[in-house]
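2024-03-11 09:14:02 DEBUG pipeline.ingest accepted 1 chain
2024-03-11 09:14:02 DEBUG pipeline.ingest length=123
2024-03-11 09:14:03 DEBUG pipeline.predict start
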Amino acid sequence: MSCSHDLDHMPHNHGNVNPLFTSMPSIEDCSKMADTFKLLSDSSRLRILSLLCHSEECVQNISAAVEMSPPAISHHLKFLKQSGLIVSRRVGKEVWYTLSNTPEALLVHQMIDDIFKIKCSKQ
């Protein structure tokens, strides 16, 4: 994360530059975070993620667990995978999904556990 502000040219220099100005996230980082929050704002994706935080499952099992059709699950999984929050692996003809091991995904895991009061053995 980097700051794009030129602190010498602040509109109102009061003689005490706020240290937060020098550590503000970049526009790109904020945009990526906003995209992640958009993904999390869908209740179906939250249900899918709450399952994948704690297990590795195929589309059929995810579908049964969250009571949605396999095509609908696949649609949500596509977005979650593109975002990097989940990963997949092929086992024969099936594709299995689980939470990825990125800082963003681990933070999502922690948030889900905290919000839904889940005690997780993975953390």
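2024-03-11 09:14:41 DEBUG pipeline.report The longest helix spans residues 27-40.
2024-03-11 09:14:41 DEBUG pipeline.predict end
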